[in-house]
Specification:
Elements lengths: L8 H6 L20 H11 L4 H32 L4 H4 L17 H5 L17 H31 L5 H11 L25 E2 L6 E2 L5 E4 H8 L3 H4 L11 E4 L1 H18 L3 H31 L7 H26 L8 H21 L8 H35 L42 H18 L3 H25 L11
Antiparallel strand pairs: 1-2, 3-4
Length: about 500
């Protein structure tokens, strides 16, 4: 008989070999799930088995004590290994010879592993960037060198590619040396054997061997773009059959070419958001001179100047309105571009939209309105009257100065000739400077007069500049036209035999 009190003679003789686990009752072999339920069950159902109950309690008490002592030993060893944390790891416990504890403790907290873990000390720190670059740079150089070689071979392959299938195959073998497939029995990529149904194929750039399933195909359009061939050289390639409009490559060569293509596109291609925003910035830059010129035209019309007309202001205001509409449409288009909700890109799109709205409101919609035509005529008439009054004042001052000079002359010299009525310009002689007008003597001038021809040429330039809405040129030409008109008027006065005018009259 064995020393286990829970084994009966029938169980030992049975020898079934079945292993049971859990909190089992030693009498009825029922699994009671916990030690408390098991003890209560044994006390109620098997009260007559007092010797078995006592041995049962002793076994569980010793097992529990042994588990707790193991945890205490591990905790003491950890405290000895870390002297800095001796105060936190030491426990006040008093045990007797049998290992019983005087002060009870919470078994759940003692079984928690985190209560017995010490704070980990900070280890040594070091930079591995140099090691990273020492590994990365040679690898990048190797990839770049391989890709450049592939592009050179691709350029040679496509430069004089024949359209005939047989000649094309010969050209490909002459450009890139193909590996001998007599000794190759398996595909290097998928390790499948070659036979009548699975033929060998060669990469057109490295000459490697592969099966059809492992072959990759590069379209001729992408290949020509990578090889930087012009469209004129690639025109014969368009005559190829649809099945032949690609190049057979291995997976590694295609990966290198795709990587180079993606890198090139990342440097040259810009996101749609950037493209639309640059269009908005260009519109703002182009409309800024028009805004300043519009304000200048409005001020000129309100002052009665005749350099610009009301039609010029209306045309320029319409152009500014079209630019404002284009900016509004583009800013709305930016909002429709997809992005992750709550991302910085979404906040950027909203900021661009708000900026466009603020610019349109403050700089374009707040422009002063066009003045009324009656108001413009009134201001022009007022300015003409002021000009006439200024001319009359200058004539009176010149006459008084002439009379004072005559009174100081010697009587023996005789009376000096007085100013004639045509010696000074009258207000009626200076009419509107928009269109050149002269007295009736203008018809006597020769049609071959260079000043008259120059005036007609400038008028044609002014008309063309107005159509192009280039109002800065219009202003410059109008000022030049006025100078020519004054010069023609002075020549007409001198032809009538009048005395020279004073600088103030000119």
């Amino acid at each position: 008989m064995s020393g286990n009190p829970f084994d009966s003679d029938e169980d030992q003789s049975a020898g079934s070999g079945e292993i049971l686990e859990g909190f089992l009752c030693p009498i009825c072999r029922a699994d009671l799930k916990s030690i408390d339920v098991l003890t209560d069950h044994f006390a109620r159902q098997h009260a007559e088995e007092e010797a078995v109950l006592k041995s049962f309690k002793d076994i569980f008490t010793k097992a529990k004590q042994k588990i707790l002592n193991n945890f205490e030993d591990e905790r003491g060893a950890a405290a000895a290994a870390s002297p800095g944390n001796s105060s936190t790891t030491s426990t006040a416990r008093n045990t007797n010879g049998n290992g019983d504890r005087n002060a009870p403790s919470n078994a759940r907290s003692r079984l928690n592993v985190f209560n017995y873990m010490d704070r980990q000390q900070v280890g040594a720190e070091g930079s591995h960037f140099e090691y990273f670059t020492s590994i990365r740079n040679p690898r990048l150089e190797r990839y770049a060198s391989e890709t450049n070689k592939l592009i050179i071979r691709l350029h040679r392959l496509l430069k004089d590619l024949p359209t005939d299938a047989v000649q094309r195959r010969q050209h490909e073998q002459q450009t890139v040396v193909w590996l001998d497939g007599s000794s190759v029995k398996l595909c290097p990529s998928c390790a499948k054997s070659f036979h009548f149904a699975r033929r060998q194929h060669h990469c057109r750039l490295c000459g490697g061997i592969m099966c059809h399933d492992c072959s990759k195909f590069l379209p001729l359009e992408d290949a020509m773009q990578l090889a930087s061939l012009s469209t004129t050289r690639s025109e014969p390639l368009h005559q190829l059959h649809q099945n032949e409009r690609s190049i057979r490559l291995c997976e590694h060569c295609l990966w290198l070419l795709d990587t180079r293509k993606d890198m090139h596109e990342s440097r040259t291609c810009r996101p749609l958001l950037v493209q639309v925003y640059e269009q908005i910035r260009q519109l703002q830059k182009d409309v800024t001179p028009d805004l300043d010129m519009y304000l200048k035209i409005i001020n000129s019309l309100n002052e009665g100047d005749t350099i610009f007309t009301l039609a010029d202001a209306g045309a320029l205001r319409g152009k500014i309105g079209q630019v404002a509409e284009a900016m509004d449409v583009r800013s709305k288009r930016i909002l429709t571009i997809f992005c992750e909700p709550g991302s910085r890109e979404e906040a950027l799109k909203k900021a661009i939209r708000l900026g466009c709205i603020q610019t349109i409101k403050e700089r374009m919609l707040s422009l002063p309105p066009l003045p009324e035509e009656s108001h413009i005529r009134q201001m022009q008439e007022r300015r003409r009257m002021e000009t006439q009054q200024r001319i009359l004042t200058e004539q009176r001052i010149a006459m008084e100065a002439y009379e004072r000079n005559n009174s100081t002359l010697n009587q023996s010299a005789g009376p000096a000739p007085g100013p004639e009525s045509g010696s000074f310009a009258h207000g009626t002689d200076l009419q509107s400077l928009n269109n050149w007008s002269a007295p009736q003597a203008a018809s006597k001038l020769s049609l071959d007069d260079p000043l008259i021809e120059q005036i007609n040429i400038i008028k044609g330039y002014i008309k063309q500049a107005r159509q192009d809405m280039n109002f800065e040129v219009v202003e410059t030409l109008e000022l030049n036209l006025r100078e020519l008109q004054r010069e023609v008027f002075e020549r007409q006065r001198q032809s009538h035999g009048s005395i020279p005018t004073t600088p103030s009259e000119a």
